[in-house]
Amino acid sequence: MKKLGLPIFIGLVIGGILSGGYLLWIRNRSVPAKHLAVPIPTPAQLLTWNDPNGFTFQYPEGLSINKHDEDKENYAHLEFTHPDHAGNLIVWGKDPARGVTDAAGWVKNEKRFTGASVLDTQLGGQVAKKIMIEGITRIVVSGAVYDTILWSVEAKLEDAKFWTDVHTTITDSFSFVSVKEPGSEATSEPASVVETQAADEEEVVE
Questions:
Q1: CA-to-CA distance for 105 and 33, rounded, in angstroms?
Q2: What pTM does this model have?
Q3: Superfamily of domain 48-180
């Protein structure tokens, strides 16, 4: 019995050493949890655009805005660009074509929408259409007819992810407001930094 005890003891010692070495090896290979954490990107702050033509919306900071003051034909012509993202977005306010009184009529009248994907949506609480135009450069347009004016938000998706997000931010927050009376204070400059509240919308393919 004594002769059998020594080999067993030696085996237990060797096993313990091997087990300890293996655990130490595993520990050295492990990366601390803090190094595994994926940084959460900070969302861009949103600015609010208040326009004297009777609408408001939110948009991400960092965008350049051209109000196209030279455009005397349309009610609104706001062009958004970004130096790091190809493409642009334009908020339009136009007189609709003769006989067009709603979003459905607008879509049927626009030849460039032929064969495009058309969804039911809302813009500023009004019945609207969202159109995806395929091509070398994809274009997404959301529009509604309100107060006899065709309002639309059109993005050229050269940098698709960036401009799709901008389009969603603007259309989700777009709303119509009372037009300021002459002589009252009104500004079309960015008014404030605010938090976004994305509106849920149900979109149905026509």
A1: 57
A2: 0.70
A3: Mog1/PsbP, alpha/beta/alpha sandwich (3.40.1000.10)
